[in-house]
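Problem: given the chain below (300 residues), write out its structure.
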Amino acid sequence: MSPNVVSVLRATPWKTLGLCYLFGAMWGAGGLTWGLMIRYLGVGLGVAIGCGLCAAVGTLVPPLVQGDFQSLVAAPGGLQALIALLAGVAISLVGIVVTGAAGMSKEREMSEEQKKAAVAEFDFTKGILVAIFSGVMSAGMSFGVRAADGVITPLAKTTAPATPDLWSGLPGLVVILFGGFTVNVLWTLFLNFKNRTTGDYAKPDAPLALNYILSAFAGVLWYLQMVFYTMGDSKIGDYKFSGWSVFMSAQIIFSTLWGIVLLEWKGASPRTQKLLGAGLAILVLSLVVIGYGNYLKPAG
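Solution.
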């Protein structure tokens, strides 16, 4: 898929490698605190705030910093396309909020025992602070992909043996994910030593083989989402910033549908079900509007 990864990374300036690694570490820190956010706020409110911030920051900050909006507006027909794209991004954020409201409504309908089991450590102030940190830091993946897109991706297409356009984002992922890997490994080792659990990796009475297989399987599945994201990113053209909101919206849509299949929403009131349906419909609408904006973009 990408036969020139080593030669591409060797030819990449250290500044670009450092930025991609830093953004990967930033994303890793966001992922580490995601669970803490859910602990303090619950799934409904936590996902709404975390994903909303991640989608907004990851979509809008890169083009603002790089000055892409000005150049896109200057192109013939660019203003109409940009308006449609930004409208789609705004609609996706509304959809995320409505879906989160459905989650909050579901939590309110739970019994006190269920609430205590689900959000035993609810703390709004701590939760909001962690959600802001986690949402913004998780957008580091978007920043890293955009940083790689400026240097590493073009090198992947031109350095022999050239990587096909569809796979050209993969070399950049190597650096970004290594940054996230570093943060996660260091934190894991810290907790291992702090809690004296380093011996658990070879504990004889634990189902280690199954645990390792399931962990590896989950890691492969997670990695594939980023592969498909960079594949789609390679086809968007000048409006690549819009792909991040599509990516985040699709995650929420399919994770929610999977939750419905697993009966997580069983017993929810009609009002909550309507909220959930409205949120999903708005998210689907955002994908249509963003797609239309990309259709309107100037040729070339």
